Amino acid sequence: MNNIRSTLAIVWRIAAPYFRSEDRLAAWTLLAAVITIELSLVGIDVLLNQWRNRFYNALQERNWDVFVREIGVFSILAASNVVLVVYQLYLNQWLQIRWRRWMTSRYLGEWLHDANHYRMQLQGDAADNPDQRITDDVKLFVDRTLGIGVGLLSAMVTLGSFVVILWRLSAEAPLHVSGREFDIPGYLVWGALIYAVFGTALAQWIGSPLVNLDFQQQRLEADFRFNLVRVRENSEQIALLTGESAERRRLSARFGRVVDNWYGIMSRTKRLTAFTRSYAQAAEIFPYILVAPAFFADKIQLGGMMQTGSAFSSVQSAVSFFVANYRDLAEWRAVVARLDGFQAAIVKATTLAGSADSIHVVSQAGGDEIDLRELLVELPNGTPLVSANGFSIRHHERILVTGPSGAGKSTLFRAIAGVWPFGSGSVAVPASATLMMLPQRPYFPVGPLQDAIAYPAEADAISSDRVRDAVISVGLIELAQRLDEEAHWNRMLSLGEQQRLGLARALLHAPQYLFLDEATASLDEASEAALYRLLEEKLPDTTIVSIGHRSTLTAFHGRNVVLIREGDRFALQNRGENVKSENVKS
Protein backbone atom coordinates (compact mmCIF):
# COMPACT_ATOMS: atom_id res chain seq x y z
CA MET A 1 0.00 0.00 0.00
CA ASN A 2 2.86 2.36 0.81
CA ASN A 3 4.41 1.57 -2.57
CA ILE A 4 1.13 2.45 -4.29
CA ARG A 5 0.85 5.73 -2.41
CA SER A 6 4.47 6.54 -3.22
CA THR A 7 3.97 5.77 -6.91
CA LEU A 8 0.80 7.89 -7.10
CA ALA A 9 2.57 10.78 -5.34
CA ILE A 10 5.39 10.62 -7.90
CA VAL A 11 2.89 10.45 -10.78
CA TRP A 12 1.13 13.55 -9.45
CA ARG A 13 4.44 15.38 -9.10
CA ILE A 14 5.36 14.56 -12.70
CA ALA A 15 1.95 15.05 -14.31
CA ALA A 16 0.41 17.99 -12.42
CA PRO A 17 2.73 20.76 -13.75
CA TYR A 18 1.36 20.30 -17.28
CA PHE A 19 -2.21 20.86 -16.15
CA ARG A 20 -1.09 24.08 -14.44
CA SER A 21 0.99 25.25 -17.41
CA GLU A 22 0.30 27.79 -20.13
CA ASP A 23 -1.36 24.94 -22.09
CA ARG A 24 -3.74 24.10 -19.22
CA LEU A 25 -6.91 25.26 -21.02
CA ALA A 26 -6.37 22.87 -23.91
CA ALA A 27 -5.17 20.15 -21.52
CA TRP A 28 -8.27 20.28 -19.31
CA THR A 29 -10.63 20.63 -22.30
CA LEU A 30 -9.18 17.58 -24.05
CA LEU A 31 -9.06 15.56 -20.84
CA ALA A 32 -12.67 16.45 -20.05
CA ALA A 33 -13.70 15.44 -23.58
CA VAL A 34 -11.91 12.08 -23.31
CA ILE A 35 -13.50 11.38 -19.91
CA THR A 36 -16.96 12.45 -21.10
CA ILE A 37 -16.74 10.11 -24.07
CA GLU A 38 -15.56 7.28 -21.79
CA LEU A 39 -18.56 7.80 -19.51
CA SER A 40 -20.83 7.84 -22.58
CA LEU A 41 -19.36 4.50 -23.65
CA VAL A 42 -20.16 3.08 -20.21
CA GLY A 43 -23.70 4.37 -20.67
CA ILE A 44 -23.94 2.58 -24.02
CA ASP A 45 -22.72 -0.63 -22.31
CA VAL A 46 -25.57 -0.29 -19.81
CA LEU A 47 -28.07 0.15 -22.64
CA LEU A 48 -26.62 -2.86 -24.47
CA ASN A 49 -26.95 -4.89 -21.27
CA GLN A 50 -30.65 -4.07 -21.14
CA TRP A 51 -30.91 -4.74 -24.87
CA ARG A 52 -29.63 -8.29 -24.37
CA ASN A 53 -32.56 -9.08 -22.10
CA ARG A 54 -35.14 -7.93 -24.63
CA PHE A 55 -33.32 -9.43 -27.64
CA TYR A 56 -32.82 -12.93 -26.24
CA ASN A 57 -36.32 -12.98 -24.81
CA ALA A 58 -37.59 -12.19 -28.31
CA LEU A 59 -35.59 -15.13 -29.64
CA GLN A 60 -36.94 -17.43 -26.94
CA GLU A 61 -40.51 -16.29 -27.63
CA ARG A 62 -39.98 -16.28 -31.42
CA ASN A 63 -41.32 -12.71 -31.55
CA TRP A 64 -40.39 -11.38 -34.99
CA ASP A 65 -41.58 -7.79 -34.47
CA VAL A 66 -39.57 -7.33 -31.28
CA PHE A 67 -36.58 -9.01 -32.93
CA VAL A 68 -36.62 -6.54 -35.84
CA ARG A 69 -37.08 -3.57 -33.52
CA GLU A 70 -34.15 -4.65 -31.32
CA ILE A 71 -31.93 -5.07 -34.38
CA GLY A 72 -32.62 -1.40 -35.14
CA VAL A 73 -31.87 -0.40 -31.53
CA PHE A 74 -28.61 -2.34 -31.67
CA SER A 75 -27.61 -0.64 -34.93
CA ILE A 76 -28.07 2.79 -33.34
CA LEU A 77 -26.12 1.84 -30.22
CA ALA A 78 -23.34 0.18 -32.26
CA ALA A 79 -23.01 3.18 -34.59
CA SER A 80 -22.87 5.55 -31.60
CA ASN A 81 -20.21 3.35 -30.01
CA VAL A 82 -18.06 3.42 -33.16
CA VAL A 83 -18.28 7.21 -33.50
CA LEU A 84 -17.42 7.77 -29.82
CA VAL A 85 -14.50 5.34 -29.87
CA VAL A 86 -13.02 6.97 -32.98
CA TYR A 87 -13.25 10.49 -31.58
CA GLN A 88 -12.02 9.41 -28.17
CA LEU A 89 -8.93 7.92 -29.79
CA TYR A 90 -8.39 11.09 -31.83
CA LEU A 91 -8.74 13.43 -28.82
CA ASN A 92 -6.67 11.12 -26.64
CA GLN A 93 -3.82 11.18 -29.16
CA TRP A 94 -4.13 14.95 -29.47
CA LEU A 95 -3.82 15.33 -25.70
CA GLN A 96 -0.89 12.89 -25.67
CA ILE A 97 1.18 14.82 -28.20
CA ARG A 98 0.51 18.19 -26.52
CA TRP A 99 1.39 16.77 -23.11
CA ARG A 100 4.47 15.02 -24.47
CA ARG A 101 5.62 18.18 -26.27
CA TRP A 102 5.30 20.20 -23.06
CA MET A 103 7.13 17.59 -20.91
CA THR A 104 9.88 17.17 -23.51
CA SER A 105 10.41 20.94 -23.69
CA ARG A 106 10.51 21.14 -19.89
CA TYR A 107 12.97 18.28 -19.47
CA LEU A 108 15.21 19.56 -22.27
CA GLY A 109 15.23 23.00 -20.65
CA GLU A 110 16.08 21.66 -17.18
CA TRP A 111 18.62 19.11 -18.43
CA LEU A 112 20.45 21.63 -20.62
CA HIS A 113 20.15 24.52 -18.16
CA ASP A 114 23.42 25.92 -16.84
CA ALA A 115 25.49 22.77 -17.61
CA ASN A 116 23.20 20.46 -15.58
CA HIS A 117 23.74 17.73 -18.19
CA TYR A 118 27.50 17.89 -17.58
CA ARG A 119 27.23 17.89 -13.79
CA MET A 120 24.88 14.89 -13.95
CA GLN A 121 27.59 12.98 -15.80
CA LEU A 122 30.21 14.04 -13.29
CA GLN A 123 28.08 12.83 -10.38
CA GLY A 124 27.56 9.46 -12.03
CA ASP A 125 23.86 9.57 -11.19
CA ALA A 126 21.44 6.68 -11.61
CA ALA A 127 19.67 8.72 -14.31
CA ASP A 128 21.63 6.99 -17.04
CA ASN A 129 20.85 7.57 -20.72
CA PRO A 130 18.97 10.90 -20.52
CA ASP A 131 18.13 10.50 -24.22
CA GLN A 132 15.94 7.53 -23.38
CA ARG A 133 14.31 9.34 -20.47
CA ILE A 134 13.34 12.30 -22.66
CA THR A 135 12.19 10.20 -25.64
CA ASP A 136 10.90 6.75 -24.71
CA ASP A 137 10.01 7.30 -21.06
CA VAL A 138 8.12 10.57 -21.56
CA LYS A 139 6.15 8.98 -24.40
CA LEU A 140 5.35 5.89 -22.33
CA PHE A 141 4.48 7.96 -19.26
CA VAL A 142 1.93 10.06 -21.13
CA ASP A 143 0.46 7.06 -22.95
CA ARG A 144 0.24 4.79 -19.89
CA THR A 145 -0.93 7.52 -17.50
CA LEU A 146 -3.84 8.47 -19.76
CA GLY A 147 -4.67 4.87 -20.59
CA ILE A 148 -4.54 3.62 -17.01
CA GLY A 149 -6.19 6.73 -15.55
CA VAL A 150 -9.13 6.78 -17.95
CA GLY A 151 -9.40 3.00 -17.77
CA LEU A 152 -9.53 3.06 -13.97
CA LEU A 153 -12.22 5.77 -14.00
CA SER A 154 -14.20 3.72 -16.52
CA ALA A 155 -13.86 0.64 -14.31
CA MET A 156 -15.15 2.54 -11.27
CA VAL A 157 -18.16 3.96 -13.14
CA THR A 158 -18.84 0.57 -14.74
CA LEU A 159 -18.71 -1.06 -11.33
CA GLY A 160 -21.17 1.44 -9.87
CA SER A 161 -23.53 1.12 -12.83
CA PHE A 162 -23.60 -2.66 -13.13
CA VAL A 163 -23.58 -3.46 -9.43
CA VAL A 164 -27.09 -1.98 -9.28
CA ILE A 165 -28.19 -4.09 -12.27
CA LEU A 166 -26.56 -7.25 -10.93
CA TRP A 167 -28.06 -6.73 -7.48
CA ARG A 168 -31.55 -6.50 -9.00
CA LEU A 169 -30.92 -9.59 -11.13
CA SER A 170 -29.80 -11.48 -8.00
CA ALA A 171 -33.30 -10.96 -6.62
CA GLU A 172 -34.96 -12.03 -9.88
CA ALA A 173 -32.80 -15.16 -10.17
CA PRO A 174 -32.20 -16.43 -6.60
CA LEU A 175 -29.44 -18.92 -5.95
CA HIS A 176 -30.41 -22.57 -6.49
CA VAL A 177 -28.31 -25.44 -5.13
CA SER A 178 -29.43 -29.06 -5.42
CA GLY A 179 -32.98 -27.95 -6.10
CA ARG A 180 -33.16 -25.71 -3.05
CA GLU A 181 -33.57 -21.94 -3.27
CA PHE A 182 -31.41 -19.64 -1.11
CA ASP A 183 -32.31 -15.99 -0.68
CA ILE A 184 -28.93 -14.26 -0.51
CA PRO A 185 -29.24 -10.53 -1.34
CA GLY A 186 -26.87 -9.55 -4.13
CA TYR A 187 -25.20 -12.98 -4.30
CA LEU A 188 -24.14 -12.36 -7.91
CA VAL A 189 -22.40 -9.12 -6.83
CA TRP A 190 -20.61 -10.90 -4.00
CA GLY A 191 -19.58 -13.70 -6.34
CA ALA A 192 -18.09 -11.22 -8.80
CA LEU A 193 -16.27 -9.31 -6.06
CA ILE A 194 -14.83 -12.45 -4.43
CA TYR A 195 -13.73 -13.77 -7.81
CA ALA A 196 -12.04 -10.47 -8.75
CA VAL A 197 -10.34 -9.89 -5.39
CA PHE A 198 -8.97 -13.44 -5.46
CA GLY A 199 -7.63 -12.86 -8.98
CA THR A 200 -6.09 -9.48 -8.13
CA ALA A 201 -4.25 -10.88 -5.11
CA LEU A 202 -2.83 -13.78 -7.12
CA ALA A 203 -1.83 -11.51 -10.01
CA GLN A 204 0.05 -9.22 -7.61
CA TRP A 205 1.86 -12.18 -6.04
CA ILE A 206 2.84 -13.65 -9.41
CA GLY A 207 3.62 -10.44 -11.29
CA SER A 208 5.24 -8.10 -8.74
CA PRO A 209 8.85 -8.95 -9.82
CA LEU A 210 8.02 -7.62 -13.30
CA VAL A 211 8.33 -4.00 -12.11
CA ASN A 212 12.02 -4.32 -11.33
CA LEU A 213 12.64 -6.59 -14.33
CA ASP A 214 11.08 -4.00 -16.67
CA PHE A 215 13.18 -1.25 -15.07
CA GLN A 216 16.37 -3.26 -15.59
CA GLN A 217 15.42 -4.19 -19.16
CA GLN A 218 15.04 -0.57 -20.20
CA ARG A 219 18.36 0.32 -18.55
CA LEU A 220 20.23 -2.59 -20.14
CA GLU A 221 18.73 -1.95 -23.59
CA ALA A 222 19.74 1.71 -23.39
CA ASP A 223 23.24 0.79 -22.24
CA PHE A 224 23.65 -1.63 -25.15
CA ARG A 225 22.37 1.00 -27.63
CA PHE A 226 24.70 3.64 -26.17
CA ASN A 227 27.74 1.39 -26.63
CA LEU A 228 26.74 0.64 -30.22
CA VAL A 229 26.65 4.39 -30.87
CA ARG A 230 30.11 4.74 -29.29
CA VAL A 231 31.50 2.11 -31.64
CA ARG A 232 30.00 3.93 -34.61
CA GLU A 233 31.41 7.28 -33.48
CA ASN A 234 34.89 5.84 -32.84
CA SER A 235 35.00 3.45 -35.77
CA GLU A 236 38.26 4.87 -37.16
CA GLN A 237 40.24 4.31 -33.96
CA ILE A 238 38.74 0.84 -33.54
CA ALA A 239 39.69 -0.03 -37.12
CA LEU A 240 43.24 1.31 -36.70
CA LEU A 241 43.68 -0.70 -33.51
CA THR A 242 42.03 -3.77 -35.11
CA GLY A 243 39.74 -3.74 -32.08
CA GLU A 244 36.77 -5.35 -33.78
CA SER A 245 37.13 -8.61 -31.85
CA ALA A 246 37.40 -6.77 -28.55
CA GLU A 247 34.36 -4.66 -29.38
CA ARG A 248 32.40 -7.73 -30.41
CA ARG A 249 33.23 -9.36 -27.06
CA ARG A 250 32.27 -6.22 -25.14
CA LEU A 251 29.03 -5.72 -27.02
CA SER A 252 28.16 -9.41 -26.83
CA ALA A 253 28.69 -9.31 -23.06
CA ARG A 254 26.39 -6.30 -22.73
CA PHE A 255 23.78 -7.89 -24.96
CA GLY A 256 24.13 -11.06 -22.91
CA ARG A 257 22.90 -9.11 -19.89
CA VAL A 258 19.93 -7.90 -22.00
CA VAL A 259 19.13 -11.52 -22.89
CA ASP A 260 19.51 -12.80 -19.31
CA ASN A 261 17.11 -10.17 -17.98
CA TRP A 262 14.73 -10.89 -20.85
CA TYR A 263 14.67 -14.56 -19.85
CA GLY A 264 13.61 -13.41 -16.38
CA ILE A 265 10.81 -11.34 -17.94
CA MET A 266 9.80 -14.30 -20.11
CA SER A 267 9.58 -16.64 -17.15
CA ARG A 268 7.56 -14.24 -15.02
CA THR A 269 5.33 -13.20 -17.96
CA LYS A 270 4.62 -16.84 -18.77
CA ARG A 271 3.33 -17.44 -15.23
CA LEU A 272 1.34 -14.21 -15.19
CA THR A 273 -0.17 -14.87 -18.64
CA ALA A 274 -1.08 -18.45 -17.72
CA PHE A 275 -2.95 -17.16 -14.69
CA THR A 276 -4.64 -14.14 -16.34
CA ARG A 277 -5.78 -16.15 -19.37
CA SER A 278 -7.12 -18.92 -17.15
CA TYR A 279 -8.79 -16.32 -15.00
CA ALA A 280 -10.38 -14.62 -18.02
CA GLN A 281 -11.56 -17.91 -19.55
CA ALA A 282 -13.12 -19.04 -16.28
CA ALA A 283 -14.85 -15.65 -15.97
CA GLU A 284 -16.70 -16.36 -19.24
CA ILE A 285 -18.58 -19.36 -17.80
CA PHE A 286 -18.62 -18.56 -14.08
CA PRO A 287 -21.76 -16.31 -14.08
CA TYR A 288 -23.73 -18.87 -16.08
CA ILE A 289 -22.82 -21.56 -13.58
CA LEU A 290 -24.26 -19.35 -10.84
CA VAL A 291 -27.48 -18.39 -12.65
CA ALA A 292 -28.18 -21.50 -14.78
CA PRO A 293 -30.03 -23.36 -11.96
CA ALA A 294 -32.51 -20.46 -11.71
CA PHE A 295 -32.99 -20.57 -15.50
CA PHE A 296 -33.68 -24.31 -15.50
CA ALA A 297 -35.98 -23.82 -12.51
CA ASP A 298 -37.99 -21.47 -14.77
CA LYS A 299 -37.32 -18.45 -12.56
CA ILE A 300 -35.87 -16.33 -15.40
CA GLN A 301 -35.99 -16.32 -19.19
CA LEU A 302 -33.08 -16.65 -21.59
CA GLY A 303 -32.83 -12.87 -21.88
CA GLY A 304 -32.49 -12.52 -18.10
CA MET A 305 -29.72 -15.13 -18.05
CA MET A 306 -27.82 -13.43 -20.90
CA GLN A 307 -28.23 -10.03 -19.24
CA THR A 308 -26.94 -11.51 -15.98
CA GLY A 309 -23.90 -12.96 -17.71
CA SER A 310 -23.16 -9.61 -19.36
CA ALA A 311 -23.64 -7.64 -16.13
CA PHE A 312 -21.56 -10.11 -14.15
CA SER A 313 -18.80 -9.87 -16.76
CA SER A 314 -18.88 -6.07 -16.56
CA VAL A 315 -18.64 -6.06 -12.75
CA GLN A 316 -15.96 -8.72 -12.74
CA SER A 317 -13.95 -6.88 -15.44
CA ALA A 318 -14.21 -3.60 -13.55
CA VAL A 319 -13.04 -5.12 -10.28
CA SER A 320 -10.38 -7.12 -12.14
CA PHE A 321 -8.95 -4.00 -13.76
CA PHE A 322 -5.56 -4.51 -12.09
CA VAL A 323 -5.41 -8.16 -13.17
CA ALA A 324 -6.19 -7.38 -16.81
CA ASN A 325 -3.73 -4.49 -16.92
CA TYR A 326 -1.01 -5.84 -14.66
CA ARG A 327 1.63 -5.98 -17.40
CA ASP A 328 0.98 -2.34 -18.39
CA LEU A 329 0.92 -1.30 -14.73
CA ALA A 330 4.30 -2.93 -14.13
CA GLU A 331 5.80 -1.16 -17.14
CA TRP A 332 4.17 2.13 -16.07
CA ARG A 333 5.63 1.90 -12.55
CA ALA A 334 9.07 1.28 -14.03
CA VAL A 335 8.69 4.32 -16.30
CA VAL A 336 7.55 6.45 -13.35
CA ALA A 337 10.57 5.33 -11.32
CA ARG A 338 12.96 6.20 -14.16
CA LEU A 339 11.46 9.67 -14.71
CA ASP A 340 11.51 10.29 -10.97
CA GLY A 341 15.19 9.36 -10.91
CA PHE A 342 15.86 11.67 -13.85
CA GLN A 343 14.11 14.59 -12.14
CA ALA A 344 15.98 13.88 -8.89
CA ALA A 345 19.29 13.89 -10.78
CA ILE A 346 18.47 17.26 -12.36
CA VAL A 347 17.58 18.71 -8.95
CA LYS A 348 20.78 17.29 -7.47
CA ALA A 349 22.89 18.81 -10.25
CA THR A 350 21.15 22.18 -9.86
CA THR A 351 21.61 22.08 -6.08
CA LEU A 352 25.27 21.21 -6.48
CA ALA A 353 25.85 24.29 -8.64
CA GLY A 354 24.37 26.57 -5.99
CA SER A 355 25.78 24.77 -2.96
CA ALA A 356 27.88 26.71 -0.48
CA ASP A 357 30.44 23.88 -0.70
CA SER A 358 31.06 24.31 -4.42
CA ILE A 359 32.97 26.66 -6.70
CA HIS A 360 31.04 29.83 -7.48
CA VAL A 361 31.40 32.02 -10.55
CA VAL A 362 30.45 35.57 -9.58
CA SER A 363 30.05 38.72 -11.63
CA GLN A 364 32.09 41.76 -10.61
CA ALA A 365 31.25 45.25 -11.80
CA GLY A 366 33.91 47.72 -12.80
CA GLY A 367 36.71 45.19 -13.23
CA ASP A 368 38.53 44.09 -16.35
CA GLU A 369 40.16 40.89 -15.09
CA ILE A 370 39.22 37.39 -13.94
CA ASP A 371 40.16 36.81 -10.30
CA LEU A 372 40.56 33.41 -8.66
CA ARG A 373 39.78 33.87 -4.97
CA GLU A 374 40.70 31.11 -2.50
CA LEU A 375 40.01 28.66 -5.28
CA LEU A 376 40.43 24.94 -4.58
CA VAL A 377 39.51 22.61 -7.44
CA GLU A 378 38.75 19.05 -6.35
CA LEU A 379 37.86 15.77 -7.98
CA PRO A 380 34.27 14.52 -7.51
CA ASN A 381 35.50 12.24 -4.72
CA GLY A 382 36.90 15.23 -2.80
CA THR A 383 40.58 14.76 -3.66
CA PRO A 384 42.32 18.19 -3.95
CA LEU A 385 43.63 18.93 -7.43
CA VAL A 386 44.55 22.61 -8.00
CA SER A 387 44.61 25.62 -5.67
CA ALA A 388 44.94 29.33 -6.42
CA ASN A 389 44.29 32.46 -4.41
CA GLY A 390 44.47 36.05 -5.61
CA PHE A 391 45.45 34.91 -9.09
CA SER A 392 44.30 37.25 -11.87
CA ILE A 393 43.88 36.97 -15.63
CA ARG A 394 44.16 40.54 -16.80
CA HIS A 395 42.66 42.14 -19.86
CA HIS A 396 44.72 41.85 -23.10
CA GLU A 397 47.07 39.29 -21.55
CA ARG A 398 48.44 36.26 -23.37
CA ILE A 399 48.99 33.48 -20.81
CA LEU A 400 50.46 30.02 -21.37
CA VAL A 401 49.57 27.37 -18.76
CA THR A 402 51.87 24.34 -18.60
CA GLY A 403 52.42 21.47 -16.22
CA PRO A 404 52.52 17.68 -16.06
CA SER A 405 49.69 15.62 -17.49
CA GLY A 406 46.97 15.03 -14.91
CA ALA A 407 47.86 18.17 -12.95
CA GLY A 408 44.37 19.61 -13.49
CA LYS A 409 44.93 22.23 -16.19
CA SER A 410 41.78 21.37 -18.14
CA THR A 411 39.79 21.01 -14.93
CA LEU A 412 40.93 24.50 -13.89
CA PHE A 413 39.54 25.83 -17.19
CA ARG A 414 36.23 24.06 -16.49
CA ALA A 415 36.07 25.67 -13.06
CA ILE A 416 36.67 29.11 -14.59
CA ALA A 417 33.90 28.40 -17.14
CA GLY A 418 31.54 27.59 -14.28
CA VAL A 419 30.79 23.96 -15.21
CA TRP A 420 33.02 22.25 -12.61
CA PRO A 421 31.39 22.61 -9.18
CA PHE A 422 33.64 20.38 -7.09
CA GLY A 423 35.78 22.41 -4.72
CA SER A 424 35.51 25.75 -2.98
CA GLY A 425 36.28 29.41 -3.52
CA SER A 426 35.13 31.65 -6.31
CA VAL A 427 35.94 32.86 -9.82
CA ALA A 428 35.13 36.56 -10.28
CA VAL A 429 34.39 37.44 -13.91
CA PRO A 430 33.84 40.99 -15.19
CA ALA A 431 30.19 41.83 -15.68
CA SER A 432 29.01 41.20 -19.26
CA ALA A 433 32.31 39.55 -20.17
CA THR A 434 32.19 36.86 -22.85
CA LEU A 435 34.24 33.68 -22.42
CA MET A 436 34.88 30.92 -24.93
CA MET A 437 36.49 27.56 -24.23
CA LEU A 438 38.03 25.66 -27.12
CA PRO A 439 38.96 22.07 -26.21
CA GLN A 440 41.34 19.80 -28.07
CA ARG A 441 38.39 18.18 -29.86
CA PRO A 442 35.79 20.89 -30.64
CA TYR A 443 32.12 20.00 -30.97
CA PHE A 444 30.25 20.51 -34.24
CA PRO A 445 26.53 19.70 -34.40
CA VAL A 446 25.30 17.62 -37.32
CA GLY A 447 23.97 19.95 -40.02
CA PRO A 448 25.18 22.54 -42.54
CA LEU A 449 28.84 23.45 -42.12
CA GLN A 450 28.02 27.15 -41.70
CA ASP A 451 25.68 26.39 -38.79
CA ALA A 452 28.25 24.07 -37.22
CA ILE A 453 30.95 26.75 -37.29
CA ALA A 454 28.64 29.52 -36.03
CA TYR A 455 27.47 27.33 -33.11
CA PRO A 456 26.21 28.16 -30.52
CA ALA A 457 24.90 31.27 -32.32
CA GLU A 458 21.70 31.08 -34.34
CA ALA A 459 22.15 29.91 -37.92
CA ASP A 460 21.40 33.34 -39.41
CA ALA A 461 23.21 35.38 -36.76
CA ILE A 462 26.47 35.40 -38.76
CA SER A 463 26.54 36.07 -42.47
CA SER A 464 27.83 33.51 -44.95
CA ASP A 465 30.53 35.92 -46.12
CA ARG A 466 31.94 36.28 -42.61
CA VAL A 467 31.92 32.52 -42.08
CA ARG A 468 33.58 31.96 -45.45
CA ASP A 469 36.29 34.53 -44.71
CA ALA A 470 36.98 32.93 -41.32
CA VAL A 471 37.26 29.45 -42.84
CA ILE A 472 39.67 30.73 -45.52
CA SER A 473 41.76 32.62 -42.96
CA VAL A 474 42.38 29.44 -40.91
CA GLY A 475 43.64 27.66 -44.03
CA LEU A 476 40.63 25.57 -45.11
CA ILE A 477 39.97 27.06 -48.52
CA GLU A 478 38.33 23.90 -49.88
CA LEU A 479 35.76 23.85 -47.05
CA ALA A 480 34.80 27.46 -47.76
CA GLN A 481 32.86 26.19 -50.78
CA ARG A 482 30.89 23.64 -48.73
CA LEU A 483 29.17 25.85 -46.16
CA ASP A 484 25.69 24.61 -47.15
CA GLU A 485 26.65 20.95 -47.06
CA GLU A 486 25.13 18.88 -44.24
CA ALA A 487 27.28 16.24 -42.58
CA HIS A 488 28.52 14.76 -39.33
CA TRP A 489 31.57 17.03 -39.30
CA ASN A 490 33.25 15.56 -36.21
CA ARG A 491 33.32 12.23 -37.99
CA MET A 492 34.16 13.51 -41.49
CA LEU A 493 37.02 15.92 -40.74
CA SER A 494 40.45 15.18 -39.34
CA LEU A 495 41.21 16.46 -35.84
CA GLY A 496 43.54 19.07 -37.31
CA GLU A 497 40.78 20.38 -39.56
CA GLN A 498 38.37 20.41 -36.63
CA GLN A 499 40.84 22.48 -34.59
CA ARG A 500 41.19 24.97 -37.43
CA LEU A 501 37.40 25.31 -37.61
CA GLY A 502 37.32 25.76 -33.85
CA LEU A 503 39.60 28.76 -34.20
CA ALA A 504 37.41 30.04 -37.06
CA ARG A 505 34.52 29.91 -34.59
CA ALA A 506 36.57 31.98 -32.13
CA LEU A 507 37.28 34.57 -34.83
CA LEU A 508 33.57 34.88 -35.57
CA HIS A 509 32.47 35.23 -31.94
CA ALA A 510 35.44 37.40 -30.88
CA PRO A 511 35.12 36.67 -27.13
CA GLN A 512 36.77 38.91 -24.55
CA TYR A 513 38.43 35.87 -22.97
CA LEU A 514 39.52 32.91 -25.09
CA PHE A 515 40.71 29.71 -23.38
CA LEU A 516 42.54 27.27 -25.65
CA ASP A 517 42.87 23.80 -24.11
CA GLU A 518 45.51 22.28 -26.41
CA ALA A 519 43.29 23.60 -29.19
CA THR A 520 46.14 23.42 -31.76
CA ALA A 521 47.88 20.26 -30.51
CA SER A 522 47.07 18.28 -33.68
CA LEU A 523 48.66 20.86 -36.00
CA ASP A 524 52.28 21.05 -37.04
CA GLU A 525 54.34 23.80 -35.40
CA ALA A 526 54.35 26.05 -38.49
CA SER A 527 50.55 25.89 -38.83
CA GLU A 528 50.15 26.44 -35.10
CA ALA A 529 52.37 29.52 -35.22
CA ALA A 530 50.45 30.90 -38.20
CA LEU A 531 47.15 30.50 -36.40
CA TYR A 532 48.43 32.20 -33.23
CA ARG A 533 49.63 35.13 -35.34
CA LEU A 534 46.17 35.19 -36.92
CA LEU A 535 44.59 35.42 -33.46
CA GLU A 536 46.90 38.30 -32.54
CA GLU A 537 45.91 40.11 -35.71
CA LYS A 538 42.16 39.43 -35.71
CA LEU A 539 41.50 39.46 -31.94
CA PRO A 540 43.79 42.20 -30.55
CA ASP A 541 41.43 42.96 -27.65
CA THR A 542 40.91 39.35 -26.60
CA THR A 543 42.65 37.86 -23.57
CA ILE A 544 44.03 34.46 -24.57
CA VAL A 545 44.88 31.72 -22.08
CA SER A 546 46.40 28.58 -23.58
CA ILE A 547 47.21 25.12 -22.31
CA GLY A 548 50.07 23.60 -24.25
CA HIS A 549 53.22 21.52 -23.99
CA ARG A 550 55.24 22.82 -26.94
CA SER A 551 58.03 25.25 -26.12
CA THR A 552 57.29 27.10 -29.37
CA LEU A 553 54.08 28.46 -27.82
CA THR A 554 56.09 30.59 -25.39
CA ALA A 555 56.80 33.16 -28.11
CA PHE A 556 53.09 33.92 -28.46
CA HIS A 557 52.41 34.45 -24.76
CA GLY A 558 53.68 37.18 -22.49
CA ARG A 559 53.16 35.21 -19.28
CA ASN A 560 53.97 31.62 -18.43
CA VAL A 561 52.14 29.89 -15.57
CA VAL A 562 53.23 26.43 -14.42
CA LEU A 563 51.36 23.95 -12.22
CA ILE A 564 53.74 22.49 -9.64
CA ARG A 565 53.14 19.91 -6.95
CA GLU A 566 52.64 21.24 -3.43
CA GLY A 567 51.75 18.48 -0.99
CA ASP A 568 48.47 16.80 -2.00
CA ARG A 569 47.65 19.26 -4.78
CA PHE A 570 49.07 21.37 -7.58
CA ALA A 571 49.53 25.14 -7.28
CA LEU A 572 50.10 27.86 -9.86
CA GLN A 573 53.62 29.19 -10.23
CA ASN A 574 53.96 32.36 -12.29
CA ARG A 575 57.15 32.64 -14.30
CA GLY A 576 56.13 35.95 -15.88
CA GLU A 577 57.05 39.41 -14.65
CA ASN A 578 53.68 40.54 -13.29
CA VAL A 579 52.68 38.52 -10.29
CA LYS A 580 49.44 39.33 -8.54
CA SER A 581 48.93 36.48 -6.18
CA GLU A 582 49.46 35.51 -2.58
CA ASN A 583 49.92 31.81 -3.28
CA VAL A 584 51.62 32.09 -6.66
CA LYS A 585 55.41 31.85 -6.58
CA SER A 586 57.61 34.12 -8.65
Would you kindly provide a written description of the structure presented here, covering whatever features stand out?
With 586 residues, the protein is an alpha/beta fold. 63% of the residues lie in helices and 13% in strands. It has 18 helices and 15 strands. The strands form three sheets. Strands 3, 4, 5, 6, 7, 8, 9, 12, 13, 14 and 15 form an eleven-stranded mixed sheet that branches. A two-stranded antiparallel sheet has the order 1-2. A two-stranded antiparallel ribbon has the order 10-11. The longest helix has 53 residues, at 244-296. It is elongated, with a radius of gyration of 35 Å. 31% of the residues are buried.
Describe the structure concisely for a colleague:
The chain has helices at 2-19, 24-61, 64-112, 116-123, 130-172, 187-207, 209-233, 235-240, 244-296, 302-319, 321-324, 326-354, 409-417, 449-454, 464-473, 489-492, 495-509, 525-538, and strands spanning 175-177, 180-182, 360-364, 369-378, 384-388, 391-394, 398-402, 423-430, 435-438, 447-448, 486-487, 513-517, 543-547, 559-566, 569-574. With 586 residues, it is of the alpha/beta class. The two termini are 68 Å apart.
SSE map:
Elements: H1 2-19, H2 24-61, H3 64-112, H4 116-123, H5 130-172, E1 175-177, E2 180-182, H6 187-207, H7 209-233, H8 235-240, H9 244-296, H10 302-319, H11 321-324, H12 326-354, E3 360-364, E4 369-378, E5 384-388, E6 391-394, E7 398-402, H13 409-417, E8 423-430, E9 435-438, E10 447-448, H14 449-454, H15 464-473, E11 486-487, H16 489-492, H17 495-509, E12 513-517, H18 525-538, E13 543-547, E14 559-566, E15 569-574
Parallel strand pairs: 3-8, 5-15, 7-13, 7-14, 9-12, 12-13
Antiparallel strand pairs: 1-2, 4-5, 4-6, 4-8, 10-11, 14-15
Helix pairs in contact: 1-12, 2-3, 2-5, 2-10, 3-5, 4-12, 5-10, 5-12, 6-9, 6-10, 7-9, 7-12, 9-10, 15-17
